[in-house]
Amino acid sequence: MKVGHALIAVLCGALLATQGWINGQLGTRIQDGLVAAASSTVSGFVVLAAGVLASPVGRRGLARLAAGLRKRELLWWQCLAGRVARCLSPAKASRSRRSVWPCSPSPPSAASW
After folding, report:
1. HSE on the CB side for 82, CA within 13 Å?
2. What percent of the residues of the chain are helix, what percent strand, and what percent coil, each to the nearest 5?
3. pLDDT tens, residue by residue, 38-78
4. Contact 13/77 with Cβ under 8 angstroms?
């Protein structure tokens, strides 16, 4: 592995931790950790989607993705990583007992707190 790749990995880890801290601060100020996490996730999605749609490389990638799904070279369940990532923000906000648990079939019991 090249040193540059390792530095990028460390930077991404630091940014992820920073996002959690920012979500926590916002959640404290607005008294709702889930809304803070949702706003972070939605704004990140909007920025990412705009970047992909604005970039010729991104648009070609979307076209290849759609073609791969149509030809069954890429199966629908292989695209479920977004579902796992969606669970990350509410999990970070889970310190609030009022949080919604979209990743589990039922909320945790009070005994697990």
Report:
1. 9
2. 75, 0, 25
3. 888 888 889 989 999 999 999 999 999 899 989 988 888 88
4. no
Cα separation, 12 vs 5, whole angstroms: 11
* Domains in the chain: boundaries: 9-94
> Among 8-17, 33-42, 52-61, 96-105, whose mean pLDDT is lowest?
96-105
Measured between alpha carbons, how far is residue 47 from residues 42, 53, 66, 80 in Å?
9, 10, 21, 20
CA distance 17 to 20: 5
Task: Report d(CA 47, CA 31) in Å as an integer.
Answer: 25
Contact between 55 and 61 (Cβ < 8 Å)? no
